[in-house]
Amino acid sequence: MIEVTGLVKRYGRAAAVDGLTFTVRPGRVTGFLGPNGAGKSTTMRLVLGLDRAHKGRVLIDGRPLRDLDRPLTRVGALLDASGVHSGRTARNHLRVIAAANGIGERRVDACLELAGLAAVAGRRIRGFSLGMRQRLGIAAALLGDPGVLLFDEPVNGLDAEGVQWVRTLMRDLAAEGRTVFVSSHLMAEMQNTADHLIVIGRGRLLADAPIGDLVATASIELRVPEAKTGTAVGLLARAGGDVTVDGGDLLIKGVDATHAGELLLGAGIPIIHLAEHRSSLEEAYLDLTGEAVEYHALERRS
Length: 302
Ligand SMILES: Nc1ncnc2c1ncn2[C@@H]1O[C@H](COP(=O)(O)OP(=O)(O)OP(=O)(O)O)[C@@H](O)[C@H]1O
Hints:
The chain is of the alpha/beta class. 37% of the residues lie in helices and 27% in strands. The longest helix has 21 residues, at 281-301. The protein starts with a strand and ends with a helix.
C-alpha cells in the first residue's frame, strides 16, 4: 500500500505537486492519469524517495521508505528507462542491481525470462530499442520480488505485443495481491488495464475513483409535454439533478434514468423521450482535465 498525504514539491516558484493526498491499495491496478506536465513523474520520484518533498508524507506499507530495510524487496519501479549504463549487457545490468541489494543470480535469470529478454541477455544495452529498454526496466523493477510496484509510462516504445504483455503483467501482479501503480497519459490504455484511477492536473488531485465510476458519469436526455417542462425541471433539480434546458429537451446530470422516470411518472408527467448517455472514459478525462490543460497552454503562451 502507498499512502501519500499533503505532498508538495516546488521547482522555483511553481508547484509541480500541489498538496496531493491519495492511497494506492493492493490487489488492483491503480492508474495514475494526467496530461503532460501534470506532476505524475515528480510524484513517483517523491514516493520512491528520489526527490525530497517540500511538504507532506509518503508511507509504504505503513512506514516511511527510509525505515524499510532492503527497500528493493519492498518497492520496485520503472521510471525513465534511458538512465542505464549502456556499455553493460542486460544480464550484467541486473546483476549489479541484484548484488547491491543482496538478491541472488537465479532471480536475475528469472526476471530476464519473465521480461522476454533471455535471448538477448548477453547483448549490450547500447544496441537495445526503446521497447527492449522498457522490458529491461521492468525486469529490474521485479528483481526484488516487491509487493509494491510503480511503473511510469511502461508501454512507451513497445509494439502491440509488448503492450499486451505489459497489460497482462500488471493485471497478474495485482492478482497476486501486489500494489500496482501505473502512470499514463493514454486514457485508452488505462481503460484496458486499471481497476481504479487517480487523475491529476497541475499537481492537484482531480479524481480518485473506481474506473467504472468515471466511465459511468451518465447524463440523461428527456422530453416531456411542453406544459410540464417547468414542473419536471423542479422535480429533477430537487432530486439533486443538474438540469439544462435545450429547446424542448432537458439534459440532466446527477440523476439516473430509472430514478428520473419514477419521479416523473409518480407526479403524473408523461414521458415522450428518455435516453441515457454513458460518457466514455475519454470524455470523462477531458471533462476532468480540460481546465488543467487550458491553464498549461496559457502558461506556455505567456
Ligand atoms: N527537475 C525539474 N526542474 C524544474 N521543473 C521540473 C523538474 N521536473 C519537473 N518539473 C516541472 O514540474 C511539472 C510536472 O512535471 P512531471 O514530469 O512530474 O509531469 P508528468 O505528469 O510526469 O508529465 P509527462 O506526462 O509529460 O511526463 C512540469 O511543469 C515540469 O516542467
